[in-house]
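Let us work through a complete example step by step.
Step 1: write down the sequence.
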Amino acid sequence: MTHLDGPGDDQAHGPFDGPEATALEIADAVENLTDLWSAAAHDATLRLSPHQLRALRALQVTPGLNLTALAECLDIGLPTASRLCDRLEAAGLLDRSFHPRKRREVQLMLTAAGQEVLGEVAGRRARALAVVLRVMEPADRDALRRGLRALLRARRAGPSPSRHPGPG
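Step 2: predict the structure and record it as tokens.
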């Protein structure tokens, strides 16, 4: 099997070096980087849970979502999404307002403070990742960048994987 961190990591050595083996190695690397990502976010001035950060990010990408759309986006229940928004609103990171054309619908928008927190977290994460990337050879960084771009293109072009893949 090919190992991302071992000698000869650029050569396949057997029948188990296909997409599944590569997926396991990438999953291991992602888990390791997730720790770095979480620690950087946790060191921000305002400590937010991963759910809270995901909610703020979703509203940054799609301002004006209603509660149902946010819950679907985060794959959480409506009561959980409502409590999440209550906490974000109490912290001054989120505003709720009535939709201008749909009187019964409430829109969720980031406040300036919410945007600022997301900017701080993004900056901290980028700096933490840069520390790791500085250790890599320039050619390896370029290869990583090309590989990640290819992975994202393939994800966008291919079928969406199910949320809960079965054995196989």
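Step 3: interpret the result. Residues 33 and 129 are 8 Å apart (CA to CA).
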